[in-house]
């Protein structure tokens, strides 16, 4: 279906769904100017269900892809090979639109441990009637890059009252601490079951504005290299609520559904999915309060007037960038481009929207400017995540439909318009194999990876249940070779499926 026809279909559908979405004036339009740079998407691997995150292990140039139903893949020469199968621990995501599942992955700076964020069935301590349990776990990395699922260590569990607004991204900062994105608990307006009362009386609920009752609605910061008396991790002494009223793990709050984090040197960037009208990107500071559910973007949420600070005088910090739902429905955070393949993008923030759009912004002080980023071929895929390799080059994870039930997920590398089909740093040549395989059928052969001066062969076998990790990160066993987008996005998922069916009929 042509781009304009698809947008007319979306606009008409949204207008007819005003009662459901609460946003009669919304449409996906062309109001943002296009930048002069055109990029191409060079396919690295395909056959995923719904790739929700992309990570790179220190010392390893191959991308690791998180697939929403519960598997982690490493891409070897264009073929995704399973390095962790956690489907027995993740909720059943089914075949329709859902925001639960396997959502985040970050490797320890040493390369010896991996940290995984997933949605588990309700565990002890999660109240009856809640949707599921947020789980953050640590896995040893064995051999040449497999996650040893037999030695999972759960670090954090958070009861999730509703099924959406799960965030789930993980990132190690330059300080060596792990940053964990946590949504507000789901539902609309930060209210309903599992949403506590806060200081703002104009809107009910408010996990985003509460830092004492739960860990929902912000970004946590923990030290995974130590243990405390009360938890299998430490809390940095300079976290903003240490020795103050509130849960010590909080680093920043006032967020609805921070979908993807990234660091640019010591600057933390977080995209936050909006409710009905505005999407935003924030530069996150220690102790920052980003306004939800008092404000949505730079505007009052569900009120004509609203405060710009808390009763204690702490400011509600506006985003550095926002766009309205004339331009998209759910922001997907990216990275400031530091690679060499696309010189015109250097120093610019590359991000996008789930509803099949790429953007680029010029970082500034309080307000950034943004443009649409054109692609050499029509970009008609649902955007889920970005990844950054060790050279600063960017990867784009997309899905061909709106659910994790198929195999239309792809990982592509962002390249210059005339750079398609060139040899990629990950060993691919733009052509992909026959889709994901389970470890044991890897075609990687004699591929090797190095972390902390430990080099091991990839032989594609499964980690032994009794594997032990030596001090240098090697093992004596063989090596194993979506996003909280609210009512509108849920509705548009059905619209997108309809558009796809019509496209295939043409």
Short description:
With 506 residues, the chain is mostly beta strands. It has helices spanning 3-16, 18-21, 486-505, and strands at 39-48, 51-56, 63-67, 71-76, 79-85, 102-107, 113-120, 132-142, 146-147, 153-160, 170-172, 178-182, 218-222, 250-253, 258-264, 267-272, 278-284, 295-296, 299-300, 321-324, 331-336, 349-353, 357-362, 369-372, 382-388, 394-399, 409-416, 448-451, 454-457.
Walk me through this protein's architecture:
The protein has 506 residues and is mainly beta. The chain has a single domain, classed as 6 Propeller (Neuraminidase), CATH 2.120.10.30. Helices cover 8% and strands 32% of the residues. It has three helices and 29 strands. The chain has helices at residues 3-16, 18-21, 486-505, and strands spanning 39-48, 51-56, 63-67, 71-76, 79-85, 102-107, 113-120, 132-142, 146-147, 153-160, 170-172, 178-182, 218-222, 250-253, 258-264, 267-272, 278-284, 295-296, 299-300, 321-324, 331-336, 349-353, 357-362, 369-372, 382-388, 394-399, 409-416, 448-451, 454-457. The strands form eight sheets. Strands 6, 7, 8, 9 and 10 form a five-stranded antiparallel sheet that branches. Strands 1-27-26-25 form a four-stranded antiparallel sheet, with no helix packed on it. Strand 23 (357-362) and strand 24 form a beta hairpin. Helix 1 crosses helix 3. It is globular and about 55 Å long. The N and C termini lie close together (7 Å). The relative contact order is 0.19. Residues 1-28, 421-433, 439-484, 486-493 and 495-506 have low confidence and may be disordered.
């Amino acid at each position: 279906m042509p781009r304009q026809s698809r947008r007319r279909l979306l606009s008409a559908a949204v207008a007819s769904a005003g009662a459901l979405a609460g946003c009669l004036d919304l449409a996906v339009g062309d109001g943002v100017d296009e930048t002069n740079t055109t990029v191409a998407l060079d396919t690295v691997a395909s056959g995923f269900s719904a790739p929700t995150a992309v990570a790179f292990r220190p010392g390893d140039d191959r991308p690791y892809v998180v697939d929403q139903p519960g598997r982690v893949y490493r891409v070897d020469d264009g073929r995704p090979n399973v390095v962790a199968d956690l489907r027995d621990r993740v909720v059943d995501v089914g075949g329709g639109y859902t925001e639960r599942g396997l959502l985040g992955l970050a490797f320890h700076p040493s390369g010896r441990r991996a940290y995984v964020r997933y949605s588990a069935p309700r565990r002890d301590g999660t109240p009856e009637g809640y949707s599921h349990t947020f789980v953050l776990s640590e896995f040893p990395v064995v051999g040449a890059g497999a996650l040893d699922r037999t030695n999972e260590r759960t670090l954090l569990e958070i009861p999730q009252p509703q099924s959406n607004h799960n965030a789930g991204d993980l990132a190690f900062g330059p300080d060596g601490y792990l940053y964990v994105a946590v949504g507000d608990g789901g539902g609309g307006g930060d209210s309903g079951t599992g949403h506590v009362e806060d200081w703002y009386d104009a809107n009910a609920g408010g996990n985003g504005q509460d830092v004492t009752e739960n860990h929902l609605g912000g970004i946590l910061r923990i030290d995974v290299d130590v243990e405390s008396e009360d938890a299998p991790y430490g809390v940095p002494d300079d976290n903003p609520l240490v020795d103050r009223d509130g849960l010590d793990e909080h680093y920043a709050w006032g967020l609805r559904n921070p979908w993807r984090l990234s660091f640019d040197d010591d600057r933390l960037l977080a995209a936050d999915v909006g409710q009905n009208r505005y999407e935003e990107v924030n530069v996150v500071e220690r102790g920052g309060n980003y306004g939800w559910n008092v404000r949505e973007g730079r505007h009052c949420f569900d009120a004509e007037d609203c405060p710009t600070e808390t009763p204690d005088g702490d400011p509600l910090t506006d985003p550095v960038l926002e766009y309205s739902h004339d331009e998209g429905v759910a922001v997907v955070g990216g990275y400031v481009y530091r690679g060499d393949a696309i010189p015109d993008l250097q120093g610019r923030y590359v991000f996008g929207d789930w509803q099949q759009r790429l953007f680029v912004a010029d970082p500034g002080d309080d307000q950034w400017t943004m443009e649409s980023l054109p692609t050499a071929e029509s970009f008609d895929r649902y955007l889920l995540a970005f990844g950054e390799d060790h050279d600063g080059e960017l990867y784009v994870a997309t899905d061909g439909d709106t659910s994790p039930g198929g195999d239309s997920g792809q990982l592509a590398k962002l390249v210059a318009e005339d750079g398609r089909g060139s040899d990629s740093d990950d060993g691919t040549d733009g052509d992909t194999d026959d889709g994901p395989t389970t470890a044991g059928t890897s075609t990687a052969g004699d591929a090797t990876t190095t972390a902390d001066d430990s080099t091991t062969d990839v032989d594609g076998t499964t980690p032994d249940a009794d594997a032990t990790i030596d001090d240098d990160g090697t093992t004596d066993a063989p090596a194993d070779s979506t996003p909280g987008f609210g009512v509108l996005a849920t509705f548009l998922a059905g619209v997108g499926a309809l558009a796809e069916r019509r496209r295939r009929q043409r």
